[in-house]
Amino acid sequence: MTFLSVKILVPLWVLLLMVVGLLPLLFQSLKWLKGKGLVKDKDIVIGGEMKTIAPASIQVEKKNKRVNEVKILKLLAKGDKGVLLQSLADSLDIDSNTTNHALKYLIGKNMVEVVNAMGGDKYFLTKVGKSYCSKKGYITTAA
Fold it and tell me: How are strands ordered across the β-sheet holding 112-117?
């Protein structure tokens, strides 16, 4: 009689308890892999190769963000005065959250700077932003 031929009776509730006990460990390891960038939300396996698929809605959203940032740059390029967040949102017909996200992106790229004033935060173009706008033709220089 060998070890492999021995039958061991295990109650079903013990197996179920083991599975339930290991589920949190499985979820935690998947979360860790996502945090390390090894597994992404949109990863799929096709023919043994892992591919990332970006839905069309995400691509359209990224394009809209770029359009909003260009609109903000064009509006700030019109004058040297600082513009309030709400004024930007109203004049561009964009909601405040979208405008705020676009401004944070532009601040991160060092194209726009924030100046705290009594009426609220005002946004100005930096030198980098002005040179970018002049290259793109948003600012017309009078000589």
Answer: 83-84, 120-125, 112-117
| Cα–Cα distance, 63 to 51 (Å, whole number) | 22
List phi, psi (to 5°) of 102: -65, -40
Instruction: Give the helix ranges, DSSP H, for 38-83.
Output: 56-77
Tens digits of per-residue pLDDT, 76-127? 888 777 888 888 888 888 888 888 888 898 989 898 999 887 878 889 899 9
Task: Judge whether residue 50 has pLDDT over 60.
Answer: no
Asked whether 16 and 22 are in contact (CB, 8 A), the reply is no
Query: Residue 131, Cβ neighbours under 10 Å: how many?
Result: 13
Q: What is the predicted pLDDT for the residue at 43? A: 52
- For the record, the structure tokens of 130 come out as 């002005």
CA 4/CA 22 separation, integer angstroms: 25
